[in-house]
Structure formats: structure tokens, C-alpha cells
Amino acid sequence: MVTSITHSGSRSRPFMSSVVFALTLLSLPLSAWGEEDQSIVTLRRMGKAFASIAEKASPAVVGIRATRVAHADSRSREYSYEDRGDLFDYFFRRQSPRRNDPPEPKEVAQGSGFIVTADGFILTNNHLVGEAEEVAVQLGDGRKFNAKIVGADPETDVAVIRIAAENLRYVELANSDTLEVGEWVIAIGNPFGLSHTVTAGIVSAKGRNQMGVANYEDFIQTDAAINFGNSGGPLLNLDGKAVGINTAIIGAGGNIGIGLAIPISMAKGVYEQLKENGKVVRGYLGVQIDNLEPGMGEFFGTKNDKGAVVTRVFDDSAAAKAGIKADDIVVALEGEPIATANELMNRIALHKPGSKVEVVVLREGKRKTLSITLDKRPQEGVEAAGGVAKAQGPLGLSVQTLTRQLATQLGYEGLSGVVVDDVEAGSPADEYGIEPEMLITEVNREPVRNVKQFHEAIAKAKAKGKVLLRVRTEEWAKLFLIPLPQK
Questions:
Q1: Looking at the annotation, which residues are catalytic?
Q2: Continuous H helices in 365-485
Q3: Per-chain mean pLDDT for the chain
Q4: What is the Cα 130 distance to its own chain's centre?
Q5: Is the predicted pLDDT of residue 134 greater than 70, yes or no?
Q6: Where exactly are the structural domains of the chain?
Q7: Check: CATH 2.30.42.10 for 397-483?
Q8: Interatomic CA distance for residues 179 and 163, integer angstroms
Q9: In the chain, fewer beta carbons within 10 Å around the N or the C end?
Q10: Between vectors from CA 42 to CA 40 and to CA 46, what angle results, nearest 5°?
């Protein structure tokens, strides 16, 4: 119960207070509504921006259907991430027969791509079209074309195809180096065959590597939803320009907000070479490199742990000729800082053989600038900045040059050659009994003293369709005549 004050001189004061109180109450929801209304306006503007980008870019995004010869294992069951552990197979759908159906000779992969020139050049993924016999492309307006494979690069998972059409809408390529973590990005593709699906998110991280997708990895990580069929489609910035090629997702049960895209700055150099030559030729430094682990820098006279430490320099390599030494730390290439070994490897690979590059190294704490003319990268399987082959060559084995330390360790003192590092299961080398730690001293009766000579000799042997290896262990020496697969 409210008791009123009846003195004549005081009646106006409580009345005015009530008015002010009432006005205050009325003003609170109006102010709150004003703030909420402004937020809605902001969201509407953002939605309009996404819609505008999608409207402009969608006509340049295409659906791709690639047909290839089905391998025996692919015809026997459905592919999944858990089956093979490959990230690639999780992005596009393969049509495989049911268990009770007769085996089919073909398999079909569905994915995406995007037009980058008005005359029909299209960027997509190597894992989608690289081994395809037929590639069909469907545009947003429903038109269908048979595409020609211009070139494909398994090392980066980038491929270029082309359709016979003119005056096409296309996506412009941005400079992905300027992309920042936290920026909005938009993915457009054909997940599960649903054409021109648009999703949005932010850049979660940059420089992701060692994901097992390709040899050269510098992925943009995004939480924009990416699923089956998005592979090969564009990742766009708010200007509607492509900053990446959607390539992979992490997770065995569908999209969980971790998608990977090849940065356009990497893809652009590959695209230009594939368009011009149908293949990619990479520069070669001729060193083995590693990251500086936390706390390691102080042992090399540097205050931080950034850079790529040289663990080995190969004889007669570009690095050796320029004066790079083991334990040098590469901290800059062409005036730009180098933070990791992967960064150096990727950036060296973007240069063509014969290119002159300026490298800054830290040697015993002092900076030294060297000018290096890059060699041609050896055949497939050798890292662009290193000298150890991955098990991807025709023999299916990786090797390293025999050093004094290895010779002492394995009992090969006084010998020269290449030591087997790894052998791929089911490869020709594996079938003929080649094992790790064996020493290969000759190829086709010619001595090989390092990795470079070994791969040059194997390349020559491919023309004959077979190779004769002289192989040593600590106890015995043996000759292996191994057929080489012909492609």
C-alpha cells in the first residue's frame, strides 16, 4: 500500500518523480530494441553479401563426373575414409556395385570444379580427374560438355581440364597469401550431387601440412561445411574471388567443421605450367631439411626456433655449388622469411629449374646471403628441397645416399651407393625381395653413388621395361632383374 503525502507544498515533487520513472521504464525497451534492430540490419547486410557472391560465382562452378577403370579392390566394396585412410576418397562419391552384383569395369567419381577463363579452362583436383578416361562437365545452366584433361599434378592435387565453349562466366583468382585467420570465406560445390550448394565459414588456420593428401601441402583450414562432392570447388573471399580449391575434410562421419583447401597462390603456379606444358617441372635445391624443434635454436646461435635447418647437402647439387653447408639455417628466400622446412620446400618447388634465387642462411649465428641457380628436380618421388625419395617411383622404393655414418652403422665401409629406406607393399621391389637397409651399388651395370644418379639411371631403364640392380647386404651381394611397369 502506497501512502501519499498531502502537504500542499510537496505535491508536485512526487508527481514529477513518477513521470521521470515512467519515462525511464519506457525508454529501456526502446533502447534495447534499437540495438537489436541494428544487429538484425547487420546480419541482413551480411546475408545479402553472401547471396551476391553466390549469385556472381555460381555460374562459374561446375559439376564434374569422372569415369575411370575400376581396380579390383574398388569393385568389391564401397569406399570410405575408414577403409583406406585416404583423405581423398572422402570428398567425392564413387558408384560401386553392391556385393551381390556382378563386377563392373568402371567406377565414377563426382566432384566440382570452377571456370577460370572465358574460353573454358577449369581448375579442379587431381584425385578427381587425374586417372580418368572420360570427364563430363555440367554447367549451372544445365549445358553438358566432355572435357579434355589439360594436365594433372599429383604432387599438389591440382588438375586443369578444358571444355570447348566461349564467353563463359569465370571466377577471378585472388592472392591467398594476404588471407588472414578469421576472415569469412564461402565454399560452393556439388556435395552429394546437390549442385551449387553454398556454405560459409571462416578461415580457421593457414599452412596446414603433413595431412597425407599430397607431397606439397600448405592448406587453408576452414569451418565452412565441405562434404562429398565439394572436392575441386572454389573457396571464395568476400570479393567473390577464389582463395583456394576445396580438397579435403578431416573426420570419418561427415563434415565436422575442418575442411582443407589448396591455396590459390600455390595452385596458380601449377595451373600456369599445366596450361603451358601439360606437366609441372620443379626447381631442386639439393638438401635435406628439418624444422627447428622448440629450444633447438640456441644450439645454432639464433634466439628463436624459426627457419629450416639443413641436415644434409647433396654432392654436385645447386646448394653445394652455392656454398650451403650442413647446419645452416635457411631463414629467408627471395626476401621473404622462412619459418618451417615445409614452407621452404613448397616455395622452392614453385620456381622453375634454372631460376636464380636469393637465400639467407644463419651460420653460427651470422647471416649470410647466397645466390643459387636451381637444378631440375629429379623424377617423381624426390622432395624438391631434399634428396630422399618417397616410395612412388616405378620400383616402389625410397633411397638415400650412403654416408660414412650409415656405412659404419650398416657394415658397408669402403662401398658407395644408395641405401633402401622404405619399400611399398606390393610394389615390384617388394615382390622381388628388396628390403630396407639393403645397398644398391649398380643400375644396369653402371655404378650409382648418390640419389640423383640412381634416379637418372632408373629413368633411362624405363625405356627398356626392366632394370638390373646389384644389391648388397652385410653378408651377400646379388643381382635382381626387375620388370618396370609401363604407363
A1: 127, 157, 231
A2: 404-410, 428-431, 451-461
A3: 80
A4: 15
A5: yes
A6: 30-280, 283-376, 397-483
A7: yes
A8: 30
A9: N
A10: 115
Position 372 pLDDT exceeds 70: yes
Taking only the tens place, the pLDDT of each residue in 345-354 is: 889 988 989 9
Tell me what pLDDT residue 484 has: 85
Q: Which CATH architecture has domain 30-280?
A: Beta Barrel (2.40)
Distance CA(487)–CA(481), nearest Å, equals 19
Spatial distance between the Cα atoms of 78 and 95, rounded to a whole number of angstroms: 8
Q: How many residues does the chain have?
A: 487
The strand pairing partners of 382, in sequence order, are 389
SS3 label, residue 221:
strand
- Select from 191, 175, 113 the least CA-distant residue to 150: 113
Kindly state the cell numbers that stand for 306: 624459426
283-376 CATH: 2.30.42.10
Arithmetic mean of pLDDT, 444-460: 87
Range 404-426 average pLDDT? 86
pLDDT for 360 equals 94
Whether 30-280 and 283-376 share one fold: the answer is no
**C-alpha 181: how far from its chain's center?**
17
Q: Is 142 left (phi over 0), alpha (psi -120 to 50) or beta?
A: left
Mean pLDDT of 114-139: 93
CB 233 within 8 A of CB 190: yes
DSSP structural state of residue 102: P
What average pLDDT does range 96-119 have in this prediction?
75
pTM for this model (two decimals): 0.65
Answer for the pair 386, 288: CB distance below 8 angstroms, yes or no. yes
Percent with pLDDT over 70 in the chain: 79
Q: How many CB atoms lie within 10 A of CB 248?
A: 27
Q: What per-residue confidence (pLDDT) applies to 55?
A: 87
> How many angstroms separate the CA atoms of 205 and 244, rounded?
13
Going by the DSSP 8-state scheme, the letter that residue 308 receives in this structure is: E
Q: Which of 418, 158, 175, 433 is nearest to 272 (CA)?
A: 158
| Of 280, 283, 201, 212, the residue nearest 244 (C-alpha) | 201
C-alpha cell at 478: 646379388
Query: Which stretches does DSSP call E strand in 320-396?
Result: 329-333, 336-337, 356-363, 366-373, 375-376
pLDDT in tens, 156-203: 999 999 999 999 999 999 999 899 999 999 999 886 667 778 888 999
CA angle 370, 376, 378 (to 5 degrees): 120
| Cα 240 to Cα 269, 309, 423, distances in angstroms | 21, 39, 45
Question: Which segments of 159-295 does DSSP mark as H helices, in order?
Answer: 264-277
Asked if the model's pLDDT at residue 23 lies above 60, the reply is no
Q: Please give the single-letter amino acid code of residue 351.
A: H
Please give the Cα distance from 421 to 401 (Å, whole number): 10
